[in-house]
Amino acid sequence: MWSSPYAWRGLVAVVLGLIAVVWPGITVGALVILFAVNCFMSAGNDAAVAFRGDRAGPVVGRLLLAFVSLTAGVTALVWPGITALALAVWIAIWAVVAGLFEVGFGFRRGAPAGNRAMWILSGLATLAFGVVLAVRPDVGVLTLATLFGFYAIVYGVSALVTAAHTAPRTQPDRNQDEGSPQWT
């Protein structure tokens, strides 16, 4: 079972899920740090690409982009709380827009009634999630970390079960005596 990528993915997901549920604040902090690291890597990449250009226009544009990424990374580390709130607001906006589209998909013609109902229900749930998160992003970001933790645990257990069910079964060789050792 442990040779399956599902098993390792499931184990990592369960561990990360437990960490997120037990320490949601640390999870949010880690997410902010990962965002800052991503900004720093992007800034370095943009600066390296800028100096490979042979014209001034792309060089200036890439250096400006590198500066913006560097500034975003420093801001995330200096003010992690504001960064976490901005992340929550961004997710809230995404959820409201996605929820509206999902509700809209429920009213399209030609789809079976059951599919349309599921689009509308999931859209309303996504929309409600976005509105609640927009109203209280301070509480929402910790709730997001906790919900992510529960999701990761469920996903991890599911992956472990899948790995157990798809693992090759070893069966004894029928050509050998049951009492003799099996050398392969």
Secondary-structure blueprint:
Layout: H1 5-22, H2 24-50, H3 56-78, H4 80-105, H5 113-135, H6 137-166
Helix pairs in contact: 1-2, 1-6, 2-3, 2-4, 2-6, 3-4, 4-5, 4-6, 5-6
Q: Overview of this structure, please?
A:
The chain is 80% helix and 0% strand. It is mostly helical. Helix 1 (5-22) packs across helix 2, helix 2 packs across helix 4 (80-105) and helix 3 crosses helix 4.
What Rg is obtained from the alpha carbons, in whole angstroms?
24 Å
The residue ranges in which pLDDT falls below 50 over 5 or more consecutive positions are none
Tell me the structural class: mainly alpha
- The total count of helices amounts to 6
Number of strands: 0
Q: Write down the overall mean pLDDT.
A: 84
The proportion of strand residues reads under 5%
Q: Which percent bin holds the helix content?
A: over 70%
What is the N-to-C succession of helices and strands?
HHHHHH
Q: Write down the oligomeric state.
A: single chain
The coarse silhouette is extended
Largest sheet: none
Tell me the span between the first and last alpha carbons.
20 Å
Would you kindly provide a brief summary of this structure?
By secondary structure, the protein is mainly α. The protein is about 80% helix and about 0% strand.
